[in-house]
Amino acid sequence: MQIASFDTVLELLKDLDPWLKSLGIKPKNDRWHEALKTVARAREQRLRIERGDKRQLVPNYIPGLFDATEVHEIFRAFGTDNSPALKDKVTRALSGPIAPLSEQPNNSTARNAMFELSLAADWKNGGARVELGEPDILLYLAQTRFHVECKRPFYDHSVRANIMDAASQLRKELEKPGSENDYGIVAISLSRIFTKGELVCFAPAGEGKRIIRDALEEMLNESGKAWGLGQFRELYDRIVAVVFHLASPWDINGERLIHLSTADFRSTGKNAKGWEVLSNNLPSFY
């Protein structure tokens, strides 16, 4: 959880374009820039309200906040990096429709890449060593390498299939020469299912973390059986965990933006040694 004022997020406007250029990406009116403009409009509206003016509609306010808080965390994690793998993921993340309701499975590449970047940023900002590439993320803990394959299901009923697809991809990676001592993690974002891109957490200070944790727990309790929780017999024996991730923007009184996220790591029961390394060395990110 990272607290950022509107002004802090808008500081990105000074640094974002030089960073994109260092990656070899030409800045344009893409989804990230539009998100930052949304924050600027929201700040201006707050100032007008304080002067006694009426509240006016800010287009794409909720998704704009969500994208802006994620961009803030990604930049905080990777703002000094200019690797080819980062360039590829950022290029994909910049594309796609600005309005979440315009997103469909056939144009969801951008927000899928955003999940990969955001999850890696969570871990890197929390103090872990991460690398981007193929698989989506490499996580290093206690001199042990974990291959992480990320999926962002579009529908509730497709979560199970996404887990199995990610596991299949991880098996291929883990069977490659040089990966004999590595482990795998399947990472599933539930944000698209939960928020539909149009939900923001409006809660007093101190309440947001509880609310989103309760929401994730409720989703897992209601749909866990259908998603195959506790039934990972079909997974490859070095895939040690499935992590379910949920994120939402949190607006406190229109004054502070918080990138709110939580995760639930579930052991597959396939490899006790790998799970022990993961559970004993993963920093407390959430």
Number of domains: 1
Please give the radius of gyration in angstroms: 19 Å
Strand fraction equals 15-25%
The DSSP helix count reads 10
Order of helices and strands: EHHHHHHEEEHEHEHEEH
Instruction: Summarize the biggest pleated sheet.
Output: 8 strands, mixed
Q: Structural class of the secondary elements?
A: alpha/beta
Q: Give the mean pLDDT.
A: 86
Low-confidence segments: none
In helices, the fraction of residues equals 40-55%
| Morphology call | globular
Number of strands: 8
N- to C-terminal distance: 6 Å
Describe the 3D structure:
This protein is an alpha/beta fold and 286 residues long. The protein has one domain (2-281). The protein has 10 helices and 8 strands. The chain has helices at residues 6-10, 12-22, 31-50, 61-78, 84-94, 109-125, 159-174, 191-195, 208-227, 272-281, and strands at 2-5, 129-132, 137-141, 144-151, 183-189, 201-202, 239-252, 256-267. Strands 1, 2, 3, 4, 5, 6, 7 and 8 form an 8-stranded mixed beta sheet that branches. Helix 4 (61-78) packs across helix 6 (109-125). The longest helix has 20 residues, at 31-50. The mean pLDDT is 86.
